[in-house]
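Bench notes, afternoon.
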Amino acid sequence: METIGIGLLIMLARMADVTIGTLRVISVIDGRMKTSFILGFLEVVIWLSVISVTLTRIEENPWLGLFFALGFSIGNVLGIWVERRIPLGNLTLRVVGGDEVRALAAELHERDLRTTLLKGEGFSGEKNMLFCFMPKGALPKVMPLLKSRRDQVFFTLDYGGISNKVLMPRTKTPPSRRRSALRK
């Protein structure tokens, strides 16, 4: 019974540290230093505690290694699940197609997202290319627009990382003094 209790603690702690690690990696990609620092610190504190308990007891009870591995595997899945539900970071949307891309740009503007539209040439002739740098939280209002044009356009979504300007949705009210100072 003791093996199961310690094993479950190892598994739960490992699930926590791997989930935190997933969020930390996203924060690093997005250039959020403070968040990355805090998450990295928590991740390593938990990991050191778990690995020390596991290594001191695994010789007498090899089943603890299984709990350690299960915690890691479940933590990966849990990290992805949490990341999908917390809109951290930015995305870059790229869309290539014909005139449908112009209509899509207009609909994105209606949803307060900024886009850049370029002309290009592909194998089958002239194409329109749309670029949109947006917060990840905007994705639920963009995906239905993309899915409705699935047969007409080609699109990709990538983590946006950091930018020299934050292209957030336009607001009706002017930015606060603090936000104005941060932009300078």
